[in-house]
């Protein structure tokens, strides 16, 4: 468990200034699973240059249909060729996971077909890769400088541009990230 005594599924994990890992600089991670065995989140703070949703459909030879050609997000450094869709709970497939009643996560080609065919979720975000932590790893990281968790505001998911999510998430928590120290102190 985290230092606060609760798991972070359905919340956002925000990189603090000076996190020390360029892969996670200004990261906004939608935490999709967090329990005593580990954690998995999908990065939503950056998109992949030159990659749109239609490109993903083309890779699976799926007609674009009614699918909007949204930018694909950099979900994280783990398995960067593996795709995920964070979406509203109005659609469910064989592997769809409900995330704390706030959003859902799917990772099979069925959701791509449903979106293209107009039968998918009303709101969705596609990503490649994920951020993952082994047993106790995230909990240990949360005791050091690097991460800040905040509520999983749905507007941040669907109504905020990727490049604005980090600042908007801190604003929503009432924090000016420019006022945060970029390292922890020592006693």
TrEMBL record:
<dbReference type="Pfam" id="PF02622">
    <property type="entry name" value="DUF179"/>
</dbReference>
<comment type="similarity">
    <text>Belongs to the UPF0301 (AlgH) family.</text>
</comment>
<protein>
    <recommendedName>
        <fullName>UPF0301 protein FHT01_001882</fullName>
    </recommendedName>
</protein>
<dbReference type="InterPro" id="IPR003774">
    <property type="entry name" value="AlgH-like"/>
</dbReference>
